[in-house]
Design goal:
Structural class: alpha+beta
Number of strands: 6
Number of helices: 2
Radius of gyration: 30 Å
Strand content: 15-25%
Oligomer: single chain
Shape: rod-shaped
Largest sheet: 6 strands, antiparallel
Order of helices and strands: HHEEEEEE
């Protein structure tokens, strides 16, 4: 077979078909790649939502565990009850920022030692502020002595 006959046969069968004409055409491959791209974009957006929901749950559980840890140490009579810093917050992928404040006279927060359950004049509270995702600017707070929970900005404890 000469070169021109080989070229005509290659054009007739296409680059993705064998000599008997079996295989995929270029248009079929483009359609399949387009469908896969659409499915991938749907999957990625769903994954981001799941990741944010997991961060929300992790923050709430970490704060409740902190309260339980403080209560246990207060009941045991520890002189300076402390809690383990919420390392889980570092795994929230930047959705939350952690705060701890001393509940001072007239409800104003003063600085406190991170990890202490109680301040010089009473209990501390811990809180998180949402900095990314839905309800940006929302806050969750918990009093480490009473367990009182407060919420704002669309975030809820439920």
């Amino acid at each position: 077979m000469n070169k021109s006959a080989q070229f005509r046969q290659a054009l007739a069968t296409g680059p993705f078909k064998n000599s008997s004409g079996e295989g995929f055409s270029l248009i079929e491959l483009v359609v399949v790649i387009g469908v896969l791209a659409i499915l991938a974009s749907i999957g990625i957006s769903s994954f981001i939502g799941v990741k944010e929901n997991a961060a929300d749950a992790l923050v709430k559980i970490s704060m409740q565990n902190t309260f339980k840890e403080c209560k246990l140490q207060i009941i045991r009579g520890q002189q300076i009850p402390t809690f383990t810093i919420m390392l889980g917050l570092h795994a929230t992928n930047g959705y939350y920022k952690f705060y701890q404040g001393y509940i001072a006279y007239k409800g104003k927060d003063k600085g406190t030692t991170i990890g202490n359950c109680l301040g010089p004049l009473g209990s501390n509270r811990i809180g998180v502020k949402k900095v990314k995702g839905e309800n940006v600017g929302g806050e969750l707070w918990m009093d480490l002595d009473t367990g009182e929970k407060t919420e704002s900005g669309g975030l809820t404890w439920q």
